[in-house]
C-alpha cells in the first residue's frame, strides 16, 4: 500500500513587538498560499517569548491586519509564552547530551576577549563568541552560581557536530544545503533573562504543531543551520524549507518594524485596498 502523504502544514509566526509591514504580509501570504495550494492547513503563531519587547496590543492588531488582507488561519493562534515548560525540557535534553555549556560572560567580557585574540572566529555578521566559558571547570561554574550569577546556555557547536554528524536541509529555492555547524559558532540557546531562545522555541513548536513546510525570509537562512542541528539532537522530524525573497523599500533595503511608514496600518489609512496592499508587497520584492 502506498504511504499516505502527510498533510501540508505551514505557519506565519510574527512577534507582537511591532506593527506588521509589507514584508510580513508577503511572508504570511507565502505560507498561506503554499498550504492552500496543497489542500493543507495554515497556522498563526505568536513568537512572544521576548516579554521585554512584547506589547499586548500588537496581538489583536496583527490579527486584524491579517484579516483585513483576507488572510484566515485554521486553528486558534499559538502563543509561545504558553510553552515555556516545553522549551525547558528541550534545554534539559541538550544539557544531558552535553551539547550546551553555561556562559557567564557579559557583553563587555566578550568584547575584551575578542580584542585580545589574535584570530577571533568570525561569522556572517562579525566576530563570533570566542567560546571563553567552554573552558570553565566545574568548580568555577559552582563559584559563579554561588555568587548568584545566572548563566546563559550556549551551543557547543563542536560537540554538536560530533553528535549529529553531517546534516543537510532541503530548500525549494536552494536545493540541498549542507549544514555548517560552525556558521554561528557557540550561539546562545537559552538567554539569561528568558531561559530560552528563538532557536529552541521555533524548532520545538514547529514539531509540536506538525509544521511540514517552514516558510521564511532569506534573512533567516543562517538560523536554519542551527535549527537542523537542534532537530537532529532532539530527534524531531525534518521539515521542508522555503527561504523566500524579502520585501524592500525604494532604496532596496529590507523593511524594518521601527519604520512606521511601511506598516500595513498606515498603508490602509492612506487608502490602499487589500488587493492593492497584496500587489504592493509582491511588487516590492528584492
Ligand atoms: N518569528 C520570526 C520572525 O518574526 C519568524 C519565524 C521563523 O520562521 O523562524 O522573523
UniProtKB/TrEMBL annotation:
Signal recorded as keyword? no
The EC number(s) given in the record are: 6.1.1.-
* Protein name, UniProt field: tRNA glutamyl-Q(34) synthetase GluQRS
Cite the InterPro entries for this sequence.
aa-tRNA-synth_I_CS (IPR001412), Glu/Gln-tRNA-synth (IPR000924), Glu/Gln-tRNA-synth_Ib_cat-dom (IPR020058), GluQ/Sye (IPR049940), Rossmann-like_a/b/a_fold (IPR014729)
Which gene codes for it? Answer: gluQRS
Glutamyl/glutaminyl-tRNA synthetase class Ib catalytic domain mapped to chain residues: 7-278
Top class in the EC scheme? ligase
Record-stated family: Belongs to the class-I aminoacyl-tRNA synthetase family.
Amino acid at each position: 500500500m502506498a504511504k499516505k502523504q502527510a498533510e501540508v502544514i505551514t505557519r506565519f509566526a510574527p512577534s507582537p513587538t511591532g506593527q506588521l509591514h509589507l514584508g510580513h504580509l508577503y511572508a504570511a501570504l507565502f505560507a498561506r498560499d503554499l498550504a492552500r495550494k496543497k489542500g493543507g492547513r495554515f497556522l498563526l503563531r505568536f513568537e512572544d517569548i521576548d516579554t521585554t519587547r512584547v506589547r499586548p496590543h500588537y496581538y489583536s492588531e496583527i490579527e486584524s491586519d491579517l484579516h483585513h488582507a483576507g488572510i484566515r488561519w485554521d486553528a486558534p493562534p499559538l502563543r509561545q509564552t504558553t510553552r515555556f515548560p516545553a522549551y525547558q525540557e528541550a534545554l534539559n535534553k541538550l544539557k544531558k547530551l552535553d551539547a550546551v555549556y553555561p556562559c557567564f560572560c557579559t557583553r563587555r567580557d566578550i568584547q575584551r576577549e575578542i580584542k585580545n585574540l589574535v584570530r577571533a572566529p568570525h561569522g556572517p555578521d562579525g566576530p563570533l563568541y570566542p567560546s571563553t566559558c567552554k573552558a570553565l571547570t566545574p568548580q568555577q561554574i559552582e563559584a559563579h552560581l554561588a555568587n548568584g550569577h545566572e548563566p546563559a546556555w550556549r551551543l557547543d557547536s563542536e560537540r554538536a557536530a560530533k553528535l549529529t554528524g553531517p546534516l543537510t536541509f532541503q530548500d525549494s529555492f536552494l536545493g540541498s544545503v549542507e549544514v555548517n555547524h560552525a556558521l554561528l559558532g557557540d550561539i546562545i540557546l537559552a538567554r539569561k533573562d528568558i531561559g530560552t531562545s528563538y532557536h529552541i522555541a521555533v524548532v520545538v513548536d514547529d514539531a509540536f504543531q506538525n509544521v511540514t513546510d517552514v516558510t521564511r525570509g532569506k534573512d533567516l537562512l543562517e538560523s536554519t543551520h542551527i535549527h537542523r542541528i537542534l532537530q537532529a539532537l532532539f530527534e524531531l522530524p525534518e521539515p521542508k524549507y522555503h527561504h523566500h525573497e524579502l520585501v524592500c523599500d525604494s532604496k532596496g533595503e529590507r523593511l524594518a518594524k521601527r519604520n512606521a511608514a511601511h506598516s500595513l496600518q498606515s498603508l490602509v489609512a492612506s487608502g490602499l485596498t487589500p488587493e492593492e496592499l497584496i500587489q504592493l508587497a509582491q511588487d516590492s520584492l528584492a
